[in-house]
Amino acid sequence: MTDLLATDPPDLPDSSADDDSVAEMIAGVTNLRDAGGHGTVDGRYVRSGVLFRSGQLAHSGDEATAALEQMGLGVVFDLRTAAELEVLPDRVPAGVDVVHLDVLAGAEASVATHLADIFSDPTAAEDVLRSGDIGRHYISTYRDLVTLDTARESYRTMFLELASREQIALFHCTAGKDRTGWAAAALLTLLGVDPDAVTVDYLLSSDPVVASFRPLLEQFAAAGGDPDLLAPVFRVEPEYLEAARQQMTDSYGSIEGYFRDGLDLDTDVTDQLRRRLLADAR
User: Which H/E stretch holds residue 255?
Assistant: First the structure.
């Protein structure tokens, strides 16, 4: 591992303005945004234009693919289940590496991995949604994101690849809010972004995800379902992220302990992540 990371990283681009305009024009890609641009508590900032996050890339049309190509993507980390990507495979520009990492493969059940399924039978979905607490379910899922073996293995691979690759990267799940949300929150915390700012960034996912799934909510209502019951499925809440943070503290003590003991990434890797993704104050 040390040999892999022995060389200093090259200068990475910092083109947030250009990349923001590219992101805005990609119709059909939910919740796409730059993972960078945040200031850190020590006065540095997370580089823009080198790491992006989004929902699934199962868009239709060549314009979206061309826009992704314009972003200069080199690698995409797909955090969805095998079943999810089989139904809606990513569409990426030629030459882009797609790394599939099934974060919740070991989970007993997760609404996050079955967002599309719940629209197929409104009556059955309502029975499930009325019988339990969606918030309680998501809190359990977020704890799994920290401790589940498949989650730890998946995030380990993603962060190791991010540390060793020189390419512009994007990571995503279906909606880009839960599996992707924890990955972004953990990374930004490691890089030194203030926890409150990390929470604000995390909460940005609610509005675009609800907007993206609105046609399905309307379809659900037309089939006799109650869309108000489904709305919480597509939002993120502060207590979800806090559940993951608390689980991280309980299991590993700190963000450094999570990366070291939970993800089995030594300081060579975390130092390399910081070198690649942090820049001095502008």
Answer: helix 255-257
